[in-house]
């Protein structure tokens, strides 16, 4: 994994908490902070995707169209199913 050094300013109380927890976990400060940032960024990305999905499907006409399409596909492969 490629890494890059960055300099950030963190309040002393957070540094103390980071050092305490990272020591208990047997991790370096950098590794622990990187893990926390990765978890937070993934969570933010997933929230953004969910918000975009919710916004798209808040449109009633789109929701009905998707529901009808899903029902149509659900009938494929059965005697009663749709034909191409």
Please describe what this structure looks like.
The protein is an all-alpha fold and 84 residues long. The chain has one domain. The protein is built from three helices and no strands. The protein has helices at residues 12-25, 29-56, 60-74. The longest helix has 28 residues, at 29-56.
| Derived structural class | mainly alpha
Shape: elongated
Mean pLDDT: 88
Query: How do the SSEs run, as a string of H and E?
Result: HHH
- Distance between the terminal alpha carbons, to the nearest Å? 48 Å
Unreliable stretches (pLDDT < 50, length at least 5) are none
Give the count of structural domains.
Answer: 1
Kindly provide the radius of gyration, computed on alpha-carbon positions and rounded to a whole number of angstroms.
24 Å
Helix content: 55-70%
Write down how many β-strands occur, each being a DSSP E stretch of 2 or more residues.
0
Describe how the helices and strands are arranged.
Elements: H1 12-25, H2 29-56, H3 60-74
Helix pairs in contact: 1-2
Task: Throw out a few tags for this protein.
84 residues, mainly alpha, 3 helices
What is the gist of this entry?
This protein is mostly helical and 84 residues long. The chain has helices spanning 12-25, 29-56, 60-74. Helix content is 68%, strand content 0%.
């Amino acid at each position: 994994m490629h890494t890059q050094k960055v300099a950030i300013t963190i309040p002393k109380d957070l540094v103390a908490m980071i050092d305490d927890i990272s020591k208990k976990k047997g991790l370096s400060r950098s590794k622990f902070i990187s893990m926390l940032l990765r978890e937070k960024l993934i969570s933010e990305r997933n929230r953004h995707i969910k918000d975009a999905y919710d916004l798209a499907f808040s449109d009633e006409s789109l929701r009905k169209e998707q529901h009808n399409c899903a029902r149509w596909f659900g009938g494929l492969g059965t005697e009663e199913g749709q034909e191409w």
